[in-house]
Specification:
By secondary structure, this protein is an all-alpha fold. It is built from seven helices and no strands. The radius of gyration is 17 Å and the shape is extended.
């Protein structure tokens, strides 16, 4: 039969919590490789890091030719609305170059 609303809500909260823990590891790819909590094959870990740090085309087009500055960060709400890319993703993508190169150069697979 049907699944109760309480079970669905609990399951959804669990997934969000799991993603939050995983996202912290994605901020430092070498830690993702060393962790033991999530049993993720190395090839999947590499894919997760690659996709997490990938630029979305519509967002990248908006930034091409613009100098990244505090002004650019203020424009992210507008860029997010125009491109349909979430503001959180926009902020992550603007912050990615500051991490010191590509995920691979930071120790990612």
């Amino acid at each position: 039969a049907g699944t109760s609303v309480a079970v669905l809500q609990s399951d959804t909260r669990d997934h969000y919590r799991t993603f939050q823990m995983l996202e912290r590891l994605l901020h430092a790819p070498p830690r993702l490789l060393q962790q033991l909590l999530f049993q993720i094959p190395p090839s999947r870990q590499a894919m997760l890091v690659q996709r997490y740090y990938a630029f979305e085309e519509s967002f990248a087009r908006e930034l091409l030719g613009k100098k990244l500055s505090k002004g650019t960060k203020k424009d992210l709400d507008e860029i997010s609305a125009r491109t349909g890319v979430s503001i959180k993703s926009c902020r992550r993508q603007v912050g990615t170059p500051k991490l010191g190169g590509t995920p691979k150069s930071r120790g990612a697979p």
